[in-house]
Amino acid sequence: MAEFFGRKSRYVRMDDLLPPEPVVEKEEGVGGGVRVRGGARRHVFFCSVFASLNHVLLGYDVGVMSGCIIFIQKNLHIDELQQEVLVGCLSFISLLGSLAAGRTSDAIGRKRTIGLAAAIFQAGATVMALAPSFATLMAGRLLAGIGIGFGLMVAPVYISEISPAAHRGSLASLPEIFISFGILLGYVSNLAFAGLPDHVNWRVMLAAGILPSISVAYVLTVIPESPRRLVMQGRTGDARAVLVKVTETDEEAQERLAEIEESARVTTNDKAVWREIARPSPVVRRMLLAGLGVQFFQQATGIDALVYYSPTIFRDAGIASEGHLLAATVAVGLSKTIFIVIAILLVDRVGRKPLLLISTVGITACLAVLAASLCLLARGALPGGAAVALAIVTVCGFVAFFSVGIGPINMVLSSEIYPLRLRAQAVGLGLAVNRLTSGAVAMSFLSICRAASVAGAFTAFAAVSALSVAFVLWFVPETSGKTLEEIELLFGEAGGSGGDVELGDGEHLVHGR
Predict the structure, then answer these.
(1) What value does the CA radius of gyration of the chain take, rounded to a whole number of Å?
(2) For residues 16 and 1, what is the distance between their CA atoms, to the nearest angstrom?
(3) Concatenated DSSP letters for 435-476?
(4) Predicted confidence (pLDDT) per residue in 261-288, tens digit
(5) Is the model's pLDDT at 165 over the cut of 70?
(6) N or C end of the chain: which has fewer CB within 10 A?
(7) Domain 280-492 class in CATH
């Protein structure tokens, strides 16, 4: 089994994180030994899992709302515009949470910010479940959106800062698998509670989302604070104590501490950080272009519209009954969850950029086929049964390609490409771009479908997806296997050509023969 640190290959299997390892002594040279601690891999893995639990909340909210909206419309008698506002506002308000989370996580710590995110979401979900009117429902949704924004930003940053370079891609992908799992839970909740009375079922569906957030209280007693954040606060001794738990040797702990202290040596206040982001150097500009661009394209291809409005898409394809519509959405959720697991197994073995290319090309193809099939159905050139089959296959194919690449990798890149002094704010800005794009798509989808048809909407998404392929080719470098500090050097030497980054970065690659 490859070593977690100091191994010869930079690629590992995800299951290498899990097996327990005994404490052994290894001789080095003539005069001494190196003590290797067992359980470091498990500790890092479970800390990453616990930090990702808040992402179940976002996934559940997205999934459950696709079914809830059907029954909310019946019970509260809301119109199409109110549906769009109810669905899309979550993304807009969560961007405020994402922006605030950067400063908050620096002020109170990554760990406490994870707890704050869960508490705010619980309050919002409670208000939604008890809402007697559309206005109250909106108030609860806005509150929940702030909590989700906090959680979206802080978990990837925490994971990237506690993880070693060799496994950071797999571990930083965990939040996306929890989002996918949450979406699946939301779809199953829709199917399970749809038989209740219309004035009760959607409330039970929303209230069930409170349960995952309760587990975060336990998380706060288990996970340590990020060592990088501790160094930023001048708590070097505490940072070393954390590193001792997440590394296999004292020597590795000391090396990582030295790297963190070096990267944190240039300290800046919050205003200086935003000033640097607003007027970036060429190196920071290349980082922002890659990070913000991937965040934009992840949502601009229409994933949230597809997940939120999948019943609408399937109804347009010819599925009539509510039960069949909700069952088809469960198939979408299963597809998304299965392929996100595959992505986690591959992201550190295959690399970020190859998976992004496979993902964006596959998404483009699925969107084009979906748009063409809906267009042919509208013209009577495609049998109804074939249209339903094509719709289910292409929608499931879309989420599969999304989940194997741009879905999880956007946050892997965003959490690892920025220097420590900018990381929290830059990741928060990226998530703001992501949520803003998501909200714009979700709040306009029904209106676009009414004006240009569902087929027209997905034709536009296919065109945007084709642009994302070109963006990945030209502007996204390969960061797999590099430490966070070495990635900063990578962008310094990149010269702006994403395709040539690896050729010009040979002496900084973290791999050996």
Answers:
(1) 23
(2) 7
(3) HHHHHHHHHHHHHHHHHHHHHHHHHHHHHHHHHHHHHHHHH-
(4) 877 765 556 788 888 899 998 888 989 9
(5) no
(6) C
(7) mainly alpha
The owner of tokens 């590795």 is 252
Query: How is 341-394 classified by DSSP, letter by letter?
Result: HHHHHHHHHH-HHHHHHHHHHHHHHHHHHHHHHHHHHHTT-S-HHHHHHHHHHH
Domain boundaries, the chain: 38-223, 280-492
pLDDT at residue 344, rounded to an integer: 77
Q: Find tokens 């998380």 and name the residue.
A: 219
| Maximum Cα–Cα distance across the chain | 83
What is the token pair recorded at 331? Answer: 């198939």
Strand partners, 63: none
How far apart CA 334 and CA 329 sit, in angstroms, is 9
Q: How far is CA 469 from CA 417, 496, 510, in A?
A: 20, 17, 27
Q: At what angle do helices 40-51 and 236-246 cross, to 10 degrees?
A: 110
* Nearest alpha carbon to residue 48 among 110, 101, 116, 120: 110
Number of Cβ atoms within 10 Å of the Cβ of 413? 28
Q: Which residues lie closer than 8 Å to 6 by C-beta, 6 or more apart?
A: 252
167-222 pLDDT, tens digit each:
766 777 788 788 888 888 988 998 889 889 988 999 999 999 888 778 888 888 88
The arithmetic mean of pLDDT across residues 149-173, rounded, is: 78
CA angle 478–479–480, rounded 5-degree value: 100
Residue 108 has phi, psi (to 5 degrees) of -110, -5
CATH class of domain segment(s) 38-223: mainly alpha
Element (H, E) at 24: strand 24-28
Instruction: Check if 38-223 and 280-492 are the same fold.
Output: yes
Could you tell me how many residues make up the chain?
513
| SS percent in the chain: helix, strand, coil, step 5 | 80, 0, 20
Looking at residue 463, its pLDDT comes to: 96
